[in-house]
Write a structure and sequence with these properties.
By secondary structure, this protein is mainly α. The protein has helices at 24-27, 39-58, 69-77, and strands spanning 4-6, 11-13. The chain folds into two domains: 1-36, no CATH class; 39-80. Strands 1-2 form a two-stranded antiparallel ribbon.
């Protein structure tokens, strides 16, 4: 699997900075399996998922939880905060 493009060497490699690689012509025989997400994109996806969970928690009735749902929602939203 080729993941990295070296503009200097004009080839694809599976390890960044590797001196031996695969030409664009050789790499063209590979199938595209999907994009590789950046850490920023992953963080954004996780933040969105946490927000959806917190919103669902806010909608729960007080009868089903030992404390107010907003306390849980606040904790869910803070899961991505740096410790």
């Amino acid at each position: 699997m080729a993941r990295y493009w070296s503009a200097t060497r004009q080839h694809y490699t599976s390890v960044p900075g590797w001196k031996r690689g695969m030409s664009p012509f050789d790499a063209s025989s590979f199938d595209f399996a999907g994009e590789i997400l950046t850490p920023t994109q992953i963080s954004e996806m996780l933040a969105g998922e946490r927000e959806r969970c917190a919103t669902a928690c806010d909608k729960l009735a007080d009868d089903f939880l030992p404390c107010h749902p907003s306390e849980y929602a606040r904790e869910i939203r803070n899961l991505g905060a740096a410790s």
